[in-house]
Write a structure and sequence with these properties.
The chain has 145 residues and is an all-alpha fold. The protein is 76% helix and 0% strand. It has 2 domains: 1-33, no CATH class; 37-144, Orthogonal Bundle (Helix Hairpins), CATH 1.10.287.
């Protein structure tokens, strides 16, 4: 009958070969191997959800089209970027990571441009500004022409 010895457990758990017959240490080392990554994923998800909630509250609370677009484009982009980055770290796969970084790059490049175009069209159509808005730079430019 084969008896479990010191060499049998050495390859199954990193660092446990130094401690004889200690399965608890082996389980502890296996659990702590991905703990830093899990903590980072939870942190990024928390940050992403917080940014997304702030963007949603901004959409509900801000008075006019322009400030709402600002909230959705700026804060929502950061929230989505954090959540997708957390997914890339969680899955720890090259294909998923490449796709995640492509999504982040695409959103970071297109969200500000889309927000600018939507607000520009809203201005041309005649969407009213809030009375709290102090500066209207487009009106000043149109008067110069």
């Amino acid at each position: 009958m084969h008896r479990r010895g010191r060499l049998h457990w050495r390859g199954h758990c990193p660092g446990a070969g130094f401690v004889h017959w200690n399965r608890r240490l082996c389980l502890l080392l296996l659990r702590s191997e991905g703990a830093v990554r899990e903590i980072l994923v939870v942190f990024l998800l928390t940050v992403g959800v917080a940014f997304s909630v702030v963007a949603a509250v901004g959409l509900l609370r801000f008075p006019d089209l322009y400030t709402r677009i600002h909230a959705a484009a700026k804060v929502g982009t950061m929230g989505l970027g954090s959540i997708v980055l957390a997914a890339a770290i969680h899955f720890n796969n090259l294909g998923v990571s490449i796709r995640a970084f492509l999504v982040i790059a695409f959103v970071f490049m297109t969200a500000p441009v889309a927000a600018h175009m939507i607000s520009r069209v809203g201005y041309k159509v005649g969407a009213r500004m809030s009375p709290k808005t102090v500066i209207d730079e487009l009106r000043d430019e149109d008067q110069k022409l």
